[in-house]
Write the structure tokens for this entry.
Amino acid sequence: MSETDISLDELERDALTEVVNIGVSRAASSLRKMVGRQVLLSVPAVEIVTQAAAASLIGQRESEILVAVKQDFEGAFSGRALLIFPETKSLELAQAVMGDDATAQQVAELENEALTETGNVILNNCLGTMANMLKQSLKMSLPQIVRGSGEQLFAATEGRNSDALVLFLYINFSIQDRDIRGYIAMLMDLPSMASLKLLIADFIDRVTKDAY
Amino acid sequence: MSVTIMVVDDSKLARIVAGKTIAALQPDWIRVEASNADEALVLLGERQIDVAVLDFNMPGRDGLELAADLRRAHADMPIAIITANIQEEVISRARDVNATFVSKPVTEDGMSGFLAGAALRLKQARG
């Protein structure tokens, strides 16, 4: 799909999706422990798109303001991971994490803390699993809460072009018996994609060695 | 008598890894693959399948839904559900259809118990 040398072939894309899938499944298992209810996941989507297109992919599906817990990661490949919800669901999520015993006032007071901690657990779990599988270590920034439209959440970092291609990975999730849904998304820039492509190739070599 | 094992996973890479693991543990077994539930059911109509290894998170019907289908037609077939999703609901649904839970990424350690148990059950069933 892309004319640049960072395009992934079928098996590489497949391998990347599988690594993300395992990372997100582990993360969902942790979230399940936190909220006490089953977490349902979609199959991950992996796309190479412009930064602007990535923003509109989420923006088009959600008309309301979004809340995201954002963590940047750095290492052999770098980028940004986000746990995103429609703003109206964020109190619900905080309540789910804090338990039914927590009063509305407690939930309101601790909403940001609950979201930050939830994002921290999910994103670290997901990225940590991916890093382990690719035999790399990643440095994670502290989680930060951002609010805004899809465009604002995915806005290019300063000095970067919104036409630049990014690797965009996203998964929808929802929590059973609760009106909570959201996305886990990851964005990586061009140099990271090139490094990731090499790591994925190594990973494929490693796991398929002596196959058949 | 030969044993045929079917691996169902939408990820080609995951099928290769599962196939490699199975080959290391049960080199004489015949391995066949499907990339989704529908393909798996077609394969099942075409030939004898003795053991099934199913990915949980697949587009279309997931591995647990496929396991329930398989179980209705094949009461004794050894079935494994493979996933990194270790939520209680997933594990208990696997248990409900009498499927073994194997965690992803698949390793020989993780798979050996299921395959040894399956080999034993098939041997007993075939007398």
Summary: The helical segments of chain B are 12-25, 37-46, 63-73, 88-96, 108-126. Chain B touches chain A at residues 10-14, 16-17, 19-20, 23, 57-59, 83-90, 104-105 (CB under 8 Å). Chain B is about 50% helix and 20% strand.
